[in-house]
């Protein structure tokens, strides 16, 4: 073949090689992460647990039931006092007295009609932090940075923070977390007056109020209430208040009548996979993964009991 023709043929072959891409093997394609739903759907039953009956309150309102799991690991004295109040039926007939938009729903006995206690105490020393809790409490640390604490994570099912220097640990103010109302004196809270966060997480309240638990179900009954028109969202008229019909410990309710829910353990392998799925979401809608998760968006999920 003459030299010009040979050159022409070689050029054509080179162009053809460029134009036709090499076949992509299946192993070369990046693996797609499972969605958070897929992680939960494939989780073993052992990674879930039912609320502890002795630590679970059923708050019954006209609209329905609110289930609160208490956290004796963070506030043992207040939780014990709240058990006494429930067994005295002290909470029955109290009211939701305050609903402040994007902040809290609060309930208790109105100031103008004080209600005596029998075995419970009216004042308790604050339990804002747990001394030594940085080592004694279970803790799944989040690697994500936090604006309010050096370390944040999940302790059992509760959002928490800790300080390695002081050894303290404390629960964080996230949506659905239950706190003890108090006045200016630090010992003025007893667990008789309670609130839950219904809006953006007011983390500036961490370590200045005793936190005692987390709402597991029924948040809609607390968030859908009319907002109070008085200062701080307090109801200005008696008829605006929402009655608390009764509060019972799950342990005092026959097992067959208890709420059939379960919560994912924050110390389980499934929880770690669920966190990863939420931190790096690859759903069709999420075209860009955040690569980050906030503490208050990392609380272990709750579902209807399986099986």
Task: Outline the structure in words.
This protein is of the alpha+beta class and 307 residues long. It has a domain at 52-259: Cyclophilin-like (Cyclophilin, Beta Barrel), CATH 2.40.100.10. It has helices at 3-19, 36-41, 76-87, 133-136, 219-223, 269-279; strands at residues 48-49, 56-61, 64-70, 95-100, 104-108, 140-141, 151-155, 158-162, 169-171, 177-180, 194-197, 211-217, 242-243, 246-249, 261-264, 302-304. The chain has a nine-stranded antiparallel beta sheet. The chain has a four-stranded antiparallel beta sheet with strand order 6-7-8-9, with no helix packed on it. The longest helix is centred in the N-terminal third of the chain and has 17 residues, at 3-19. The model is unreliable at 12-20 (pLDDT under 50).
What topology emerges from the helices and strands here?
Blueprint: H1 3-19, H2 36-41, E1 48-49, E2 56-61, E3 64-70, H3 76-87, E4 95-100, E5 104-108, H4 133-136, E6 140-141, E7 151-155, E8 158-162, E9 169-171, E10 177-180, E11 194-197, E12 211-217, H5 219-223, E13 242-243, E14 246-249, E15 261-264, H6 269-279, E16 302-304
Antiparallel strand pairs: 1-15, 2-3, 2-14, 3-12, 4-5, 4-13, 5-11, 6-7, 7-8, 8-9, 10-11, 10-12, 15-16
Task: Give a nutshell description of this structure.
Helices cover 18% and strands 22% of the residues.
């Amino acid at each position: 073949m003459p030299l010009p023709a040979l050159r022409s043929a070689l050029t054509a072959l080179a162009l053809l090689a460029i134009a036709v891409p090499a076949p992509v093997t299946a192993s070369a394609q990046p693996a797609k992460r499972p969605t958070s739903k897929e992680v939960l759907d494939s989780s073993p039953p052992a990674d879930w647990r039912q609320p502890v009956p002795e630590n679970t309150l059923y708050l019954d309102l006209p609209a329905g039931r609110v289930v609160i799991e208490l956290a004796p690991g963070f506030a043992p004295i207040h939780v014990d006092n709240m058990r006494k109040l429930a067994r005295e039926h002290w909470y029955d007939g109290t009211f939701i007295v305050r609903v402040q938009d994007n902040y809290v729903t609060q309930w208790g006995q109105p100031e103008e009609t004080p209600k005596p206690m029998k075995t419970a105490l009216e004042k308790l020393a604050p339990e804002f932090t747990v001394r030594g809790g940085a080592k004694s409490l279970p803790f799944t640390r989040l690697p994500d940075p936090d604006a309010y604490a050096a370390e944040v994570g999940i302790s059992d099912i509760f959002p928490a923070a800790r300080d390695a220097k002081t050894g303290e640990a404390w629960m964080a103010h996230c949506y659905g977390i239950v706190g003890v109302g108090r006045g200016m004196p630090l010992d003025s809270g007893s667990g008789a007056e309670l609130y839950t966060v219904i809006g953006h997480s007011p983390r500036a309240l961490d370590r200045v109020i005793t936190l005692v638990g987390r709402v597991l179900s029924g948040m809609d009954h607390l968030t859908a209430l009319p907002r109070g028109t008085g200062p701080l969202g307090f109801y200005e008229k008696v008829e605006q208040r929402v009655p608390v019909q009764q509060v019972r410990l799950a342990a005092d309710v026959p097992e067959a009548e208890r709420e059939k829910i379960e919560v994912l353990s924050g110390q389980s392998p499934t929880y770690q996979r669920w966190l990863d799925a939420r931190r790096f979401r690859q759903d069709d809608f999420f075209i860009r993964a955040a690569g980050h998760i906030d503490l208050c968006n990392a609380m272990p999920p709750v579902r209807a009991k399986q099986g």
